[in-house]
Amino acid sequence: TGPISVQDLSEKIAVKSQKVVQLLESLGKSVTAYSILDVETSELIITEMGHKSQRVGLEDLEARWWGVKSKTYEDRPPVVTIMGHVDHGKTSLLDALRETSVASGEKGGITQHIGAYQTRLKSGKQVTFIDTPGHEAFIRMRERGSAVTDIIVLVVAADDGVKAQTIEAIRHAKTSNVPIIVAINKIDKTTAKPDVVRSELLNHGVVVEKMGGEVLDVEVSALTKKNLDALIETILLQAEMMELTCSPDTKARGTIIESHMRKGHGHVATVLIQNGTLRKGDIFVAGLLSGKVRMMFDAEGHVVQKATPGQPVEVLGFSRSPLSGDRFMSLDQESQAREFVEWKKSQALSDDSSEVTSNLPENSSDLA
Ligand code: GDP
Ligand code: MG
């Protein structure tokens, strides 16, 4: 096993925890039933107690708790982050896209901003937009080893061209291996020069189709709403090529997008569900926290009972605020949640905590 408390270890090998404490005391170690033992010590105890020991890494823990092999694989909505230079129209584009979705029928219902939303298109397909992160949060998440974004929509103003933050975004996309779709915005302007944008992008290694490359680009106007359907179609086309799948019948897993305190609700976190289904009452771990889903809201602020892959939801039930980029996972029992958190804490103490995250699979698509 991995690091484990005396109590949990005793339970596992079916001996009284007092016996384990006594054994350790005889070896000159002062412990209580709640002390956390490292792998070597617990192996020693297991051997002493006549059991065969076996090292279990995080993958094994995960396989044990979440590895319920799924038979159903379904298409998963792509998760899209919009990036680009300041004033090139990121916010305008997000708002315009939100309005063109079917959800606009209930526009009055959009009462809160949760940093992510999902558009339901007339075709029935869905696209998830991560709203607030922008560059900083993207970097923070990447540093913490989280992969939430499937596609980056790079907004470049047709009258301004490639600028510092455009280049920065290109770098993020390349280092994290996320495909780019270029939205050449403000095409309504008389000063728009989309071909200049294309050749400037070429100079920075982004070769769009018209320049003989493979990167998809669309000329749009967030102001007049020109070609927004084409942009969505292009996102769906890119997603199709990536064959994004999920298994909704497994335990939920996802990533914390952001969290904050809210009067009357306590600590509230926006969780992007990346695989499985999260239900009210589910037990979860996130970072070094564990809890139980007390209530969930969708992006429009409606109470929901469950959340499926690709869906961003607000989750109530945290004792403290988790961090952006923390992985979120639901599991069957509170004891598992406790064990997992203890294990992670001991990992974080014993070595570089980044190792803990780097042990985890890069994204949800490689999980059964
Ligand atoms: P952000 O900083 O990238 O989020 O950019 P904003 O969405 O705040 O837009 C910056 C400015 O550009 C605002 O004044 C917008 O009204 C304007 N803008 C955004 N999109 C368009 C567009 O398609 N056409 C025109 N003419 N102006 C736009
Ligand atoms: Mg903005």
TrEMBL record:
Residues in Tr-type G domain copies: 75-245
Domain of life of the native organism: Bacteria
Binding site for GTP: 84-91, 131-135, 185-188
Location of this chain's protein in the cell: Cytoplasm
Entry's family note: Belongs to the TRAFAC class translation factor GTPase superfamily. Classic translation factor GTPase family. IF-2 subfamily.
Reported function: One of the essential components for the initiation of protein synthesis. Protects formylmethionyl-tRNA from spontaneous hydrolysis and promotes its binding to the 30S ribosomal subunits. Also involved in the hydrolysis of GTP during the formation of the 70S ribosomal complex.
Protein name: Translation initiation factor IF-2
Organism: Holospora obtusa F1
The gene coding this protein: infB
Residues of the full protein shown: 254 to 621 of 832
